[in-house]
Every structure is written in structure tokens, then in C-alpha cells.
Specification:
Blueprint (H helix, E strand, L loop, with lengths): L11 H16 L5 H12 L3 H16 L2 H6 L5 H23 L8 H29 L4 H26 L4 H19 L14 H30 L4 H15 L4 H8 L28 H4 L13 H7 L3 H6 L16 H4 L3 H22 L1 H7 L6 H28 L5 H19 L5 H28 L4 H8 L2 H24 L12 H32 L14
Helix pairs in contact: 1-6, 1-7, 1-8, 2-3, 3-6, 3-22, 5-6, 5-8, 7-9, 7-10, 7-18, 7-20, 9-10, 9-18, 16-20, 16-22, 16-23, 18-20, 19-20, 19-23, 20-21
Protein name: Nodulin-like domain-containing protein
Organism: Populus deltoides (Eastern poplar)
Keywords: Membrane, Transmembrane, Transmembrane helix
């Protein structure tokens, strides 16, 4: 990573976290596809499989993040945000021109490419703020991941409130906001998203600040849910509508209260350490005492871990004397928990187990999200806006809840975070089975459950990758993990769900399918997919338990010795 000037002081990381909230709301632009897809379908005269393939383009753009993953180690965050701004403007601009019929006759493939470009802005926005904040708060990765991913998940509800209350269900105006509003917002936040010197240790005030951020996000989620429900049953005047939106904006700004409080009531100055783009920065020099000594000192459980790396240490034994005399420079492959390069991570079984588990679980969840409008119609629901809000709210609950809960248990019991992925996949399996049998009222029970599980899978992935493979190349490794989402969307949503839906619609001699059979086969297949994911997640959890015992044996995150590569 190039030498980047760090913003010193205790406030800048929290200012950056508050700005990241707005950028991640912008990064949730891909969730709007169910809102404007009916207009694309009618204007272009598409069938369900064609609109589903556009949904796959939406997912591909959202998750192909290899380039921003590489760029985050070479360029400052503002450069990544700038690329996202350009992609957002160009991609959604084409979609706006299409829906408003300002330009007529654009080919299907161009619309597909425009969707990929538009939603790919998500990866540039998300990578910039996620990697920066994970490095600014290296000792609270699960909590930070839960907060940031939570706001990204609830973005759909924010857009839905704007769509219903301000835009009055206007697809063209929604696309105009995505074309112009998001770039302006991200340009305004660009200055505040920057690498900072992270705190060298955990303290009570930092813990209180994280709790405040979590409470603020929960309050926002509840407010959005209640506002959406009220607007659906009561006719609101323009004045009331704008007041409700203003309250939403104020709640979104609440994380700024933390740096304001730190300015008005400054705490005792604490030492700062270099940015955690690598674990190396948190290892003290010889003879130097730092506040992180307690994190790096072997705990009482260390005697039980002697055999953890015994086999690999035996291979190094022959080099120890030469290394000690300076005749040979020790070089070995990194161990789990240290900093991996992408090619080193790709040969690890744990990497592929984690990738496949994510691919199966997130692929199943995104299939429901992409087809949410059609699922609602198939089950006899005309307006599916509430379903999208429910999914978004529960997606948020899963993200922020799993971040906080996994952080608690990993510190208290050294339980791998992937255990919560296992539970999520088990719940998804049962939910899809119930969905397939179309029980009365199942829609409003199944969608929230799937939203929670979808959020858990997304949020748990972030700190797990950083803990197993380090922070130095986290952006690229995490982006590679994200490739499972579009592949899952293509297989399960584009090929399976779209084909089954059109086949059932053809039986009904209609372009729209109504009834439980529209998605029955799809739900049964997805149940089997989640069953396989559950088994693999259990295997992964058992394999990486010793790693978490090593990293958290002292009750807090302990960085292992570096591999020297």
C-alpha cells in the first residue's frame, strides 16, 4: 500500500464512520431494482426470464469487486469513490433515458451492461468505506462490520420511503435521483472517508460510542418500518410527508454526535498506532512497551495451544539455527490469522469452504430478493412495497445483530463466527420448505426470516475473512468472496427461478403467473442448497475453532506473529 498521509487524532475515525453511513446508503442503490423493474419490463416488452436476467446483471454489478479490491491497496479512498460516482451517473443515466423513453430503441444488451455498470458503483463505494473503517478500527472488526453492513442493508427501506412519500411511486424520478443524487452525495462525503491513526487499545468510551451507533441504526430501522406501514394505510399530506423524511435525515446524521461530543468533552489523550493495513503495525518493537502488550502476551490458555501449529513448526525447525545466526532469512507460508496474499488464500481449504457456504446461502437469498415482486403477486399480493421494506428491515437486523452477537461470543467463548452462518442456513432451509407448501400467511413470516438470515450471511463474512486471512489484502480477498453472489444469482435466479416461473405462466396462458406452483420447485431446490450449505458450514466451523482459540484466548483480539513475507 502506498504511503498515505494519516489523519491524526481521536475524532477523525468517528467522523469517517459517520460519513460512511451516508456512502453505504448510496451503495445500497442495487436494492432498488424491484422498484423500477416493472417499468423496464413494460417499456421494453420483456418476459419474466428476461427481467430476471436483468436482475442477474444487477447482482453481477453489485458483487464484482475485484478491481476496487486491488485499487484499495494502491489508491486513497477518494479515488475509489470517484470511480463509483462516474459508474453510477453513466449506468443509471442510461436506465433513466430508457424508462422515460427519452431515447427509444436501446438494445437489450445495452440495458444489461448499463445495469452492471450502475450497480458496480456499489462495490467501489462499499470497498472504499469498508476497508478504510476496518483499518481505522482494527480491534472491533465484528462490531464495525455489523454497523456498516447494517446501514447498507437498510438502504432499501430508505429508498422505499423516498419512493413512496416523496416521489409518489415514480420510477423515472427514482432513477433520476440514482443518476444525480447519489453522485452528489458521495462527492460531498469524499473528504471525510480517509485513513486515520487507529486507537491503540480498547476503552470504555469507544465501547459506548459503538453502542450509540448501533442504537441509532436500530432506531432508524424501526422508524423506516413504521413510516412505511403508516404511509400504506393512511393518506398523508405533503407537509407531513416532508416532516417524516426530515426526521429520517436527522436520524441518519446521528452518528455525527460522537465526534461532536468528543470535541465538546475531550477525553484523556491516548497513543495512536499506524493504520492496520497489515498486522505488522500492531506488533511492538523489541524492548518497547505499548498499550497492546496485553493483546499480544500469551494467555493462560496458551499451554493448550502448543500443538496447534506443531506440524508446520516442525518443518521450520531445521532453519532455526541459521535464521538465528542471520545466514538465512526465514520465509514461510502464512498461517490462518496472519496476512495472506490472494494467491496464498486461494490454496487454502478454509477459503473455499467459506466461499461455497457464502455462494449457497447468499445465492438462495438473492433469488428471493430479485423475484420479490413476482413472489408477492403469485401469492395474491398486489402491492409488494411492504414486502421489500420488511426484507430490508430484517436484513438490517440480521447484519447488525450478527455483528454484535458474534463479537460478544467470540470474545467470551472463542466461538467462530461461522457458527452463526450455520444457524442462518438451517433457518433458511426450513423457511424454504414452508414456502414451497404455500401455507396461509407464510409470506409475512417467511420474508422476514429470509431477510434476517441473508443479513447474517453478509455481515459475518466480513470479519471472518479479515480474521482468517488478515487486513493487509482484505479488500481483494473479500471482493473475491463476493463473486459467489452473482454466480448464485445466475444459477438460482436467472436459470432456475426464471425458467420455472415462465413455464408455469405458459400453462396459465399468461405473462404473469399466479399461485403457489410458480415458485414451488424453486423453493424446494433452494431448501436443498441451504441443507448442503449447513453441512459445509459445520465442517468449516470445526476446522477454524483452533484459530479463534488462538486469536481470542485472552478475551480480546490477539494478533499472531507475522509470517515475514
Amino acid at each position: 500500500m502506498p504511503n498515505i498521509v494519516l489523519k491524526a487524532g481521536s475524532r477523525p475515525p468517528w467522523v469517517g464512520l459517520a460519513a460512511a453511513v451516508w456512502v453505504l446508503i448510496a451503495a445500497g442503490n442495487g436494492y432498488n431494482f424491484p422498484l423500477y423493474s416493472p417499468s423496464l419490463k413494460s417499456v421494453l416488452g420483456l418476459n419474466q426470464q428476461q427481467i430476471t436476467i436483468l436482475g442477474v446483471a444487477n447482482d453481477i454489478g453489485e458483487n464484482i469487486g475485484l478491481l476496487p479490491g486491488i485499487a484499495c491497496n494502491k489508491f486513497p479512498p477518494w479515488a475509489l469513490l470517484s470511480v463509483g460516482v462516474v459508474f453510477c451517473f453513466l449506468g443509471y443515466g442510461v436506465l433513466w433515458l430508457t424508462v422515460t423513453q427519452t431515447v427509444i430503441g436501446l438494445p437489450y444488451w445495452l440495458i444489461w451492461v448499463a445495469l452492471v455498470v450502475a450497480t458496480n458503483s456499489t462495490t467501489w463505494f462499499g470497498t472504499a468505506v469498508l476497508v478504510t473503517n476496518m483499518r481505522n478500527f482494527p480491534l472491533s472488526r465484528g462490531t464495525v462490520s455489523g454497523i456498516l453492513k447494517g446501514y447498507a442493508g437498510i438502504a432499501a427501506a430508505v429508498y422505499t420511503v423516498i419512493y413512496k412519500l416523496v416521489l409518489k411511486d415514480s420510477d423515472s424520478e427514482l432513477l433520476l435521483i440514482l443518476t444525480l443524487g447519489i453522485p452528489i452525495l458521495c462527492l460531498a462525503m469524499m473528504y471525510f472517508i480517509r485513513p486515520c491513526s487507529p486507537a491503540s487499545g480498547e476503552d470504555s468510551s469507544e465501547h459506548v460510542h459503538f453502542i450509540f451507533s448501533q442504537v441509532a441504526s436500530v432506531l432508524l430501522a424501526l422508524y423506516l418500518l413504521i413510516t412505511t406501514i403508516i404511509s400504506g394505510v393512511v393518506s398523508l399530506s405533503d407537509t407531513v410527508t416532508y416532516i417524516l423524511v426530515l426526521i429520517m435525515v436527522i436520524i441518519l446524521m446521528s452518528p455525527l454526535a460522537i465526534p461532536v461530543k468528543m470535541t465538546l468533552f475531550p477525553a484523556e489523550h491516548k497513543r495512536r498506532v499506524p493504520p492496520s493495513d497489515s498486522s505488522d503495525h500492531l506488533v511492538p518493537k523489541e524492548g518497547e512497551s505499548t498499550p497492546t502488550d496485553s493483546l499480544l502476551t500469551p494467555s493462560s490458555s496458551g499451554t493448550n495451544l502448543g500443538s496447534f501449529y506443531e506440524n508446520e513448526d516442525a518443518l521450520d525447525a531445521g532453519m532455526l539455527l541459521a535464521v538465528g545466526e542471520g545466514a538465512v532469512k526465514k520465509k514461510r507460508r502464512p498461517r490462518r490469522g496472519e496476512d495472506f496474499k490472494i494467491h496464498e488464500a486461494l490454496i487454502k481449504a478454509d477459503f473455499w469452504l467459506l466461499w461455497v457456504v457464502s455462494f449457497l446461502g447468499v445465492g438462495a437469498g438473492v433469488t428471493v430478493l430479485n423475484n420479490l415482486a413476482q413472489i408477492g403477486v403469485a401469492f395474491g399480493l398486489e402491492d409488494t412495497t411492504l414486502l421489500l421494506t420488511l426484507f430490508s428491515f430484517c436484513n438490517f437486523v440480521g447484519r447488525i445483530g450478527s455483528g454484535a452477537i458474534s463479537e460478544h461470543f467470540v470474545r467470551l467463548k472463542m466461538i467462530p463466527r461461522t457458527l452463526w452462518m450455520t444457524f442462518a442456513l438451517m433457518v433458511m432451509l426450513m423457511t424454504f420448505i414452508l414456502f414451497a407448501f404455500a401455507l396461509n400467511g407464510i409470506l409475512y413470516a417467511a420474508i422476514p426470516l429470509l431477510g434476517i438470515c441473508y443479513g447474517v450471511l453478509y455481515a459475518i463474512m466480513v470479519p471472518t475473512v479479515s480474521e482468517l486471512f488478515g487486513l493487509k489484502h482484505f479488500g481483494l480477498i473479500y471482493s473475491f468472496m463476493g463473486l459467489g453472489n452473482p454466480i448464485g444469482a445466475l444459477l438460482f435466479s436467472g436459470m432456475l427461478a426464471g425458467y420455472v416461473y415462465d413455464a408455469e405462466a405458459a400453462k396459465q396462458s399468461s405473462s404473469s403467473c399466479v399461485g403457489p406452483d410458480c415458485f414451488k420447485v424453486t423453493f424446494l431446490v433452494l431448501a436443498g442448497v441451504c441443507g448442503l450449505g449447513t453441512i459445509l458450514s459445520i465442517i468449516l466451523t470445526v476446522r477454524i475453532r483452533p484459530v479463534y482459540e488462538l486469536l481470542y484466548s485472552g478475551g480480546s483480539f490477539r494478533l499472531p506473529q507475522t509470517s515475514g513475507h
